[in-house]
Amino acid sequence: METSDALKLIEKYYPKDSEASRYYHVHANAVAKATQLIIENNPHLKVDIEKVKIMALLHDIGIFLTNAPAIGCYGTFPYLAHGYLGRELLEKEGLNDIAPVCERHVGVGLSLFDIEKNKLPLPHRDMQPQTIEEKIVCYADKFFSKSSPHPELPKPIDKIIHNLSKYGDDKIKKFLEMENMFGSHYIYENFR
Questions:
Q1: What is the DSSP annotation of 113-134?
Q2: What is the pLDDT of residues 73-106, one digit of tens each?
Q3: 79: closest CA among 87, 67, 70?
Q4: Which residues, at least 6 apart from 50, have a Cβ–Cβ distance to it below 8 Å?
Q5: Number of Cβ atoms within 10 Å of the Cβ of 154
Q6: Please, what's the largest Cα pairwise distance for the chain?
Q7: Separation of alpha carbons 174 and 97, rounded Å
Q8: pLDDT score of 127
Q9: Domains of the chain and any CATH numbers
């Protein structure tokens, strides 16, 4: 798959005239740009930049199936379900190598323990990022919120940590491990 194919797939589910399309494109493009910056600033990672960009563009493909009217989505599922729904959608499209990122980027990843302990409306399986590519997308995604007044601008680290604190210290620790692995100053420098 190439970037142009990913963009066509997005348009299939997010027609240009739809309310959700604007939110989706702003968010997905910001995350894709951040993943590119992460890779460029960490050449030792030796990842396929095109594949990661495609993963970033498609990571939230399932949001239209959720009930999130604030971002133009009028589906029936809770927003938290967008990850596994996106994975199912991409698997139906034959994108089995990219599909897992959809469910593994949520939060900083959800363990089976998290899902069972919190009785989350999700399939009972581990949904934590496993590959370096998935970790890059997961990390980049934390900087951007579709419902922010400025969804194209990265959130400050302290706001990300505050948002994660609701889910436990282990989530903050995972994010800080990614921050240590990838860095972030260059993200803020390139989104002004």
A1: HHHHHTT-SS-SS-BS--SHHH
A2: 999 999 999 999 999 999 999 999 999 999 999 9
A3: 67
A4: 2, 3
A5: 23
A6: 43
A7: 24
A8: 96
A9: 3-190 (1.10.3210)
- pLDDT < 50: residue spans in the chain: none
Q: Which of 120, 132, 109, 116 is nearest to 46 (CA)?
A: 132
Query: What residues are paired with 67 via a beta bridge?
Result: 74
Residue with tokens 């379900």, as numbered in its chain: 81
CA distance 90 to 83: 11
Residue with tokens 């240590």: 180
- Of 21, 153, 20, 19, nearest to 7 by C-alpha is 21
pTM over 0.85: yes
User: By C-alpha distance, which of 141, 149, 147, 146 is closest to 187?
Assistant: 141
Pairwise CA distance, residues 22 & 160, whole Å: 23
